[in-house]
Specification:
By secondary structure, this protein is an alpha/beta fold. The protein folds into 2 domains: 367 residues, Peptidase S8/S53 domain (Rossmann fold, 3-Layer(aba) Sandwich), CATH 3.40.50.200; 104 residues, Alpha-Beta Plaits, CATH 3.30.70. The protein is 30% helix and 18% strand. It has 14 helices and 23 strands. The strands form 7 sheets. Strands 12-14-11-16-17-18-19 form a 7-stranded parallel sheet, sandwiched between helices. The protein has a 5-stranded mixed sheet with strand order 3-7-4-6-5, with helices on both faces. A 3-stranded antiparallel sheet has the order 9-21-20. Strand 16, helix 11 and strand 17 form a beta-alpha-beta unit. The two termini are 24 Å apart. Pfam families: Peptidase_S8 (PF00082). Keywords: Hydrolase, Protease, Serine protease, Signal. Belongs to the peptidase S8 family. One of its GO terms (molecular function) is serine-type endopeptidase activity.
């Protein structure tokens, strides 16, 4: 997508008064051409098994696997609802009903045979915990089944410590200033108020001075209510010796990313892009990630529950979800449904592109998928970080990443109560998360409109003409649409007429 009119000035795109409405018209037209739902796969006589699952089941082997169903929920009512709570409620209702309808017969069969399984609705799938080849073949022969996929675990891409002890002068961090967030606060009058961001990550230190004031679960009297604001589906905190059902961070990664999105301690540590926004979080694992944990997290984002996973409240769903996770050398569209369903209810999904560069074609899933808005990382000089994953995507050759943001020497919170600096696209991702929070706070008429929001981010990004991995000067597989410009993105969003 090519940018609208503008003129370069010290690395920024400045929209003149005469070009603003032209840019608005352009992105509105572009948004109409963008689709956010996946089609239903064509029918087959027998569902396929992945080669990896075939190998696991050979020679009398047993395996856990996911049964992917053909059916999809009709989400038109959710996507056309006006209010965020109405969209998420309609989406939750449609998704759970579709899963119940499509999975009913298979659930009965498995229950009758004493087979342990777990059903999901954010993706229309069941996890069969232990089965032999004979059972797998009978499941694959059922008409409602699309494919069988092996259960996987994956190592989350490592972040890179900088060795910086994290000391700083008071004021916004370099990365926050570089994207123009302080100018949004002072010139456009918003810090993200009224917007909730979610983090799917390693957990979070909820009582850190730079995060505690932004935690949605903190009451006015300083006490906490963690139901609907925190979820640890596998009780990772308790299993690692921490108090049960109280937020924790398994290795500090999740605290760091949320700090960049919303952190501010009120005493000079201005580390976050949208410090007026609130946060909620899921502990989806530590260094290793399991598919089912990420599905549980994805469901909770659309319909937060109490700490036991019961009594879902889709009206409490966040507006933006930060996904500083993925896996290397594992091209797959397993989470496409989850991302599409978030989009259908107006939740903006932001993903890291991965830390597998500098080679081309290294962008990792799920950020390589068409619905995910993926983020590459650049340093303090504006140069792409050498390890930032490049496109094109192996899923159809789409240009990736979508955009680039600061990701080198990013100072944010750690799990010990202090601060540290890290490198990685995980660190770049929450800059976009925070920018979307600023946009939607300032321009509620754009909130929930994923296509328009992506178009605004794209149009206002500062072009960097690096075509070493293909693409165009204005949209390439190194920087995507260019460097994130929060100041211009929020201003352009504010010019969109109210609906």
């Amino acid at each position: 997508m090519r940018k609208g009119s503008g003129r370069a000035y010290r690395g920024r795109v400045i929209l003149t008064r005469s070009t603003r409405w032209a840019a608005v018209s352009l992105f509105l037209a572009c948004a109409l051409a963008i689709t956010g739902t996946a089609g239903v796969a064509g029918a087959r006589d027998t569902a396929e098994m992945t080669p990896a699952l075939e190998r696991e089941l050979a020679d009398g082997g047993r395996a856990a696997f996911f049964v992917m169903l053909r059916g999809r929920a009709e989400l038109r009512a959710a996507s056309t609802a006006r209010r965020h709570s109405e969209r998420t409620a309609a989406g939750h209702r449609a998704l759970t009903r579709a899963a119940e309808r499509d999975q009913r017969a298979l659930r009965r069969m498995l229950a009758a045979e004493g087979v342990r399984y777990e059903a999901f609705w954010i993706v229309n799938t069941l996890l069969v915990h232990d089965a032999d080849r004979a059972l797998a073949e009978r499941i694959a022969a059922r008409p409602e089944v699309e494919r069988l996929v092996e259960r996987r675990s994956a190592r989350r891409p490592d972040t890179v410590p900088t060795g910086d002890v994290g000391t700083t002068d008071a004021g916004p961090e370099w990365n926050v200033a570089h994207i123009g967030a302080p100018r949004v606060w002072s010139e456009l009058g918003t810090r993200g108020e009224g917007i909730v961001v979610a983090g799917i990550d390693t957990g979070v230190r909820h009582d850190h001075p730079a995060l505690v004031g932004q935690y949605r679960g903190r009451r006015a009297d300083g006490s906490f209510v963690h139901d609907y604001n925190w979820y640890d589906p596998q009780n990772y905190c308790e299993r690692t010796g921490r108090p049960a059902q109280i937020p924790c961070d398994l290795n500090g990664h999740g605290s760091h990313t949320l700090g960049t999105a919303v952190g501010d301690d009120g005493a000079g540590n201005q580390i976050g892009v949208a410090p007026g926004a609130k946060w909620i979080a899921v502990a989806a694992g530590g260094l290793f990630l399991l598919q089912e944990d990420l599905l549980r997290a994805g469901q909770w984002v659309l319909a937060p529950t109490d700490r036991t996973g019961a009594a879902p409240r889709p009206d409490l769903a966040p507006h933006v979800v930060n996904n500083s996770w993925g896996w290397e050398n594992w091209p797959d569209d397993f989470y496409t449904q989850m991302i599409d369903n978030w989009i259908a209810v107006g939740i903006f999904p932001v993903f890291g592109s991965g830390n597998s560069g500098p080679n081309c074609g290294t962008v990792i899933p799920p950020g390589q998928g068409p619905g995910a808005y993926s983020v590459g990382a650049y340093d303090g000089t504006g140069q792409i970080w050498s390890q930032s994953s490049r496109g094109p995507s192996p899923l159809g050759g789409e240009t990736k990443p979508n955009i680039a943001a600061p990701g080198v020497n990013i100072r944010s919170v750690n799990d010990a109560g202090g601060y540290e600096s890290l490198n990685g696209t995980s660190m770049a991702t929450p800059h976009v998360t925070g920018t979307v929070a600023l946009m939607w706070s300032k321009a509620p008429q754009v909130a929930g409109d994923i296509a328009r929001t992506k178009a605004i981010l794209d149009l206002t990004a500062t072009d960097v003409a690096d075509t070493s991995c293909g693409g165009a000067p204005s949209d390439n597989n190194v920087y995507g649409e260019g460097r994130l410009n929060a100041r211009n993105a929020v201003e352009l969003a504010s010019l969109v007429p109210a609906r």
